[in-house]
Amino acid sequence: MTDDSALKYSPFSSHVDPSFWHKLSQIKLDIDKLDEKVHPVWGSYTNVNTVGLPSLHVDCTSYNSKFEELRYQLPAFGCQLNLNTLESYKSSDKTILLEKQGASLWADIANGSVLKNPALLSRFFLLTFGDLKKYTFYYWFAFLAPSTPNVQIIKPPALISTIFSSAQVESLQSEWSNIVDVYQRSYFIVKIQGDQAKIFPLSDIVSIFKAQCEEQWAEFYLAFADPCSSGDAPGWPLRNLLCVLAHYCPHVVGKKINVLSLRLVLKSHGQVNAADKSLLMSVQLLPHNETELKWVGWERNNRGKFGPRFVDVSGDMDPKKRAESAVHLNLKLMKWRLLPEMDLDTVQNTRCLLMGAGTLGCTVARLLMGWGVQHITFVDNGTVSFSNPVRQSLFTFEDCLSGGRPKAEAAAEALKLIFPGVITSGVTLNIPMPGHPVGDSMLKETQDAVATLEKLVEDHDVVFMLTDSRESRWLPTLLAGAKKKLAMNAALGFDTYLVMRHGVFCDDETPPDFNARSIPGRHLGCYFCNDVTAPGNSMADRTLDQQCTVTRPGVSAVAGALVVELMVSVLQHPSKGDAPAVLHKSTGKEDQESVGCLLGTVPHSIRGFLASWDQLTPATHRFSNCIACSEKVLKEYASRGFDFIRDVLNSAVYLEDLTGLTSLHKETENADVWEFSDSEEEENNSE
Amino acid sequence: MGTISWDEFKAFAQSFLTVSDEINDGWAWQGDQDQLAGAFIAKKIKQLLRKQRSLPAEDETDPFEDTSCQTEDNHIAEELNGSQQECTWEYHILYSPSYATPVLFFNVFTSDGHLVPLESLWKGGTQGALQHLRWEALSQQEHPVLRRPYYYLHPCKTAELLNLHQGSSTNPIVTWLSSMGPAIGLHLDIAYGHLVQNQR
Fold first, then answer.
1. Window 88-117 of A, Cβ < 8 Å to B
2. What region holds the Ubiquitin-like modifier-activating enzyme Atg7 N-terminal domain (chain A) (predicted)?
């Protein structure tokens, strides 16, 4: 026998619907648990309108007790063994597993079950291992077939239309379509009588092929629904069908058998040429020994090897990944639909340090997450108290119990509960403040706190000042200025708010042009630039209501939202922290400078007044005598480090002397022309 | 206007299915029709793509390879489409109770059950018109009935579109799908045309 005349079959290729992995996981977690169970599973294939490789599908309905009957879908009987560990997967003997499945198929052939229910011949085995924490699966299909009998081609496959008349083909198609029982549709016997094709069930195989003489079955065709859409090779199901014939009618061995592979291309009702792509061939079975039957059918993997396939569906199934991609997709939609030029990556990769985890800190953190910011660190010295949760959106009543949880830590944990993809932590420490003297006992702790803060500012890109006092903003302002980080500030009064960005300094020595219509970021002032006193101990002389947050509850939400949006606008500006702030809103047509970034203008500060519902966006220059951001202060810090800071903490007037504010005060007293509104003082009482 | 009720949706979908059955287009109901928006009509299309994975080098070993399974079997025909990868496009037409319009959900997956990310679809360029959609109404959502992630065309513009055809369309599903579908590779057969013929 030459190789050319040996009949070859087109193997099935496996198709797994995503829903199959969902169902498999669910069954493993809820039902099987640690059992390594064998599950009966349904597969389906079709011989109608097929595309590509002959495929066998499994999906979530595969686990149903009844086959999900869909139009033109044929049932395949499968067994799935789901193993618990990768080790048992690797070490399991695939040959023995396949032999076991083969034995069961052989039993169905030998005891006649397949004659009553021919669909039992479409048989597969599925070996799986799923890592349900990683949402990855190893899986290996075997489409069971006996290795023998060998079959020789007598008459090579030919298109049906070259042999049958069109009336016969049409009759075949309509007869087959009229088979009601889906289990009888995959394997059957066809007889041609005149213009008519007649279909007999597979159970007639014995009576039809019982004759000793091949002329007596010359008009009969052993037929099967062929999942293969193209080429000369008949599909895999024929293999098992010929094995059945060899078993029930051993005398046909060596004789000519007609085979019909039914392939339909159905495009409309009453279409007459749908079965034209079917094949006819004649074959001859070679003798084989049933007792030495071997089973084959393991599918090759993507690499063409005999081994399992691997799939990682974590992107579709891991809830954490789904949350992540959903958050990013939501933001991308903004980019896709409205602002194609938007730079989301810069925003999302910005590491944000939040000084304060109170009403402002909670609001700011949530909104940063809304923008996809992945890295958020809280600094706070407090614990969650009973008054907090109603205003501070990251806390609940539970956080207040047993003395209250540290706020920074509780806030970070809440962020993770909201969005597990966030990188967050909470640092509990007291921010050293000017005019709060450091005794010897506190020296070590203060030194550590300063070192921690220096490191934190170094490791982040943006520092948010969201604390409840003016003096606690001094050190962060100094550190952000010294390390040239963008500092964002939000402060609240009872019904007013101030939101601002600090200038981000560069080494450019060009003096500011006070007549320009805008101020570049490098020349913008900080929170302290408009104050002519150094921060002292603002808590010392206050009544309880002044020490606590006394603001209209909505103010912090408004200011928190604005400070985040302002940061995003700064980051969208090509000059980032150096983005110019417009001094006076243009009255005429908008020029490039006043437009700012693609999101609009980038103001220096936003002052809002709820009583009148007004909002202003003033911009001010960096003040050369500023106690937090002036050259003198930065230089002093650069050369003396902690010693300088300790001097500031110990004496409120030290900074005023250093920066020349003291002499300025004297001059103004002499001139007696400046008047300061005390409305500024409201900001001191902020959170 | 341009909106329809759940019962109307079911009726329109049913006449859509009648045509589908006639031309073997493969649409079928799924889900529970007795529940508001609990059912939808679905169709799958298999598409061949050029295989992206390169074949492993000859000497490359597969840690899971099991040569014992390589029983001498010379009865396997050569793969005809060996250089192609198969993708399945799955389309679902649902009813959106909040917009009172049909809404289209879809997924694309490879034969191992792995969803193809939207970005790859765009990059692939196999569906040129998809490019335009990225600015408009395409996003990912949990399928309201199946509770799994699907891409979907946001229905915010659907009512508007249907309103344009008010009075001239006798089956809003066909009107809408024939204008939205091609962007995601779904082309309606001309046979559906008789469902929207002007009855005036």
1. 90, 93-95, 98
2. 7-315
Give residue-wise pLDDT tens across range A56-65. Answer: 999 999 999 9
Average pLDDT on A555-576 reads: 96
Q: Which of A282, A221, A214 is nearest to A251 (CA)?
A: A214
- Check A322 against B46: CB less than 8 A apart: no
Q: What share of chain B is helix, strand, coil (3-state, %, to 5)?
A: 30, 25, 45
Instruction: Find out whether B105 and B141 touch, Cβ atoms under 8 Å.
Output: yes
Residue contact A8–B109, C-beta within 8 A: no
Closest approach of chain A CAs to the CA of B42, in angstroms?
12
3-state secondary structure of A491: strand
Distance CA A367, CA A329 (A): 16
Residue in A with minimal Cα distance to B115:
A316
Among A14, A51, A306, whose Cβ lies nearest the Cβ of B67? A306
Q: Is B191 on the interface with A (CB under 8 A)?
A: yes
Minimal Cβ distance to A71: which of B28, B107, B118 = B28
Question: Which of A638, A330, A599, A357 shows the shortest CA–CA distance to A483?
Answer: A638
- Residues of A catalogued as catalytic: 548
With contacts defined as CB-CB under 8 Å, which chain B residues touch A93? 68
| pLDDT exceeds 60 at position A546 | no
* A611-630 average pLDDT score: 92
User: Cβ separation of A303 and B56 shorter than 8 Å?
Assistant: yes
Interface residue A49 vs chain B (CB under 8 A):
yes
Tell me if residue B93 falls in helix, strand or coil. Answer: strand
Tokens in use for B83? 């250089």
Q: A301 and chain B: CB distance < 8 Å anywhere? A: yes
> If you measure CA to CA, which chain B residue comes closest to A228?
B80
Residues 118 through 177 of chain B touching chain A, CB cutoff 8 Å: 118, 134-136, 139-140, 146, 148-149
The answer to whether the CB atoms of B71 and A296 lie below 8 A apart is yes
Residue pair A535/A527 in contact (Cβ under 8 Å)? The answer is no
The span from the CA of A216 to the CA of A202, in Å, is 17
| Averaged pLDDT of chain B | 80
Q: How many CB pairs under 8 A join A and B?
A: 150
Strand order from edge to edge, sheet including B149-153 = B28-31, B39-50, B84-96, B101-110, B149-153, B138-142
**Spatial separation of the C-alpha atoms in residues B109 and A22, rounded to whole Å:** 14
- Delimit the domains of chain B by residue range: 6-48+83-195
pLDDT tens-digit map of A429-479? 999 999 888 888 889 999 999 999 999 999 999 999 999 888 899 999 999
What end-to-end distance do the CA atoms of chain A give, in Å?
A: 92
User: Could you tell me whether strands A74-83 and A123-131 are parallel, antiparallel, or unpaired per DSSP bridges?
Assistant: parallel
Q: Cβ B86–A53 below 8 Å, yes or no?
A: yes
Cross-chain residue pair B24–A15, CB shorter than 8 Å? no
Q: Which residue of A has its CA nearest to B107?
A: A18
Classified by CATH at the fold level, domain A340-667 comes out as Rossmann fold (3.40.50)
> What CATH architecture is B6-48+83-195?
2-Layer Sandwich (3.30)
Reduced 3-state DSSP string for A168-228: HHHHHHHHHHCCCCHHHCCEEEEEEECCEEEEEEHHHHHHHHCCCCHHHHCCEEEEEECCC
Q: Give the residue extent of every domain in chain A.
A: 13-314, 340-667
pLDDT, one tens digit per residue, over A370-418 is 999 999 999 999 999 999 999 999 999 999 999 999 999 999 999 999 9
Please give the CATH number for the structural domain made up of A13-314.
3.40.140.70
**Does A138 sit within 8 Å of B114, measured CB to CB?**
no
Q: State the CB neighbour count (10 A cutoff) for residue A444.
A: 10
Please give the single-letter amino acid code of residue A569.
S
Cα separation, A472 vs A457, whole angstroms:
15
- Core vs surface per residue B60-89: b (16+ CB within 10 A) or e: eebebebeebeeebebbbebbbeeebbbbb
